[in-house]
Amino acid sequence: MATIVGVRFRNAGKLYYFDPGKLWPTAGDAVIVETARGVEYGEVVTGVREVADEEIVQPLKSVLRIATVEDAQHQKDNQRREREAYDICQKKIIDHKLEMKLVSVEYTFDNSKILFYFTANGRVDFRALVKDLASVFKTRIELKQIGVRDEAKMMGGLGLCGRPVCCAQFMGDFQPVSIKMAKEQNLSLNPTKISGVCGRLMCCLKYEQDHYEATRKRMPRVGREVITPDGVGTVQDINVLKETVRVRVPKNDSSEIRDYALADIRRIGGGPKNSAPTPEPEERDDLDEEFIGVNEQHVQDAGDSMDDE
Fold first, then answer.
1. Nearest CA to 169 among 155, 179, 183?
2. Of the chain's two ends, which shows fewer C-beta atoms within 10 Å, N or C?
């Protein structure tokens, strides 16, 4: 077991573990820590606790000190410098006629490096820009190309639900999202309705996916015959959220469609109620991406590395 504290460097950013040493910071405290890119100012999210050794990435760097009033003021000064650096870099990009969009600027706490985050459609030769910026700021310059999801996370905004985007509010890491999730949740496949401000599939599609998958395994497939309180019928539709099944059952010389609770039906063959039907081959989604018009990957953007320490 290892003793750690969890520290975050930006709102809704990734959580990193550090060795508290002889210090015992509590949640909400500002601390100065040693990271792979230098000394940083962060906020303690989880207090001192023990975790298994396999849950941490070695070597575990240490907390240098609890932040002082002077450290807090220095951090505010850095944030002011970041806004000034943004304006300067924006002008330099125009001067160099580069096809790139500047998203954010970040100073390291010890001012040993300035990081400029940008988006672009392809690779950008920014070597001349780096030299120009280095001559202005007299420090180490690093440019990082990020993905559209990272841009939305850093810029923020409102989603289709009217609330601030999840990635900028509380999501530490991006979760894989696929068009298959929208299909299983019976959502519209219109790109404008299931895409976020970043243009990719909305992260919230992942929230209920586990429930849909677990419930679907207990529900019969459409077209299967089941035994209902009114006799044998054929499944016409299922409602995962309500856990109801719409079944066509015979009535005199005709038939009618009725809704039944999942607990009130069972499959043909004498199996117990709610027993899962025999698994069938999953439908292929070869044309999903082309249809939806969104090149959604099952891994996070390459630009997500901006949180790596």
1. 155
2. N
Query: Sorting pLDDT into bands at 50, 70 and 90, what band is 134?
Result: very high
- Please say if the pLDDT value at position 274 is more than 60: no
Cβ burial, residue 60 (10 Å; 0-12/13-18/19+): middle
pLDDT class of 305 with cuts at 50, 70, 90: very low
Helices (H), the chain: 69-96, 127-137, 148-155, 166-169, 179-184, 191-194, 209-218, 288-292
Mean per-residue pLDDT, 78-96: 93
User: Crossing angle for the helix pair 127-137 and 69-96, nearest 10 degrees?
Assistant: 140
Model confidence pLDDT, tens digit, residues 174-185:
888 888 898 888
* Residue found under tokens 């950013």: 13
At residue 299 the predicted structure's pLDDT band, cuts being 50, 70 and 90, is: very low
Query: Quick one: 201 exposed, middle or buried, by C-beta within 10 A (0-12, 13-18, 19+)?
Result: buried
How buried is 194 (Cβ within 10 angstroms: 0-12 exposed, 13-18 middle, 19+ buried)? buried
CA–CA separation, 307 vs 9, rounded Å?
Answer: 9
CA distance 222 to 224: 6
Query: What is the pTM assigned to this prediction?
Result: 0.67
Q: Is the previous residue joined to 59 through a cis bond, with omega within 30 degrees of 0?
A: yes
247 bridge partner residues: 235, 258
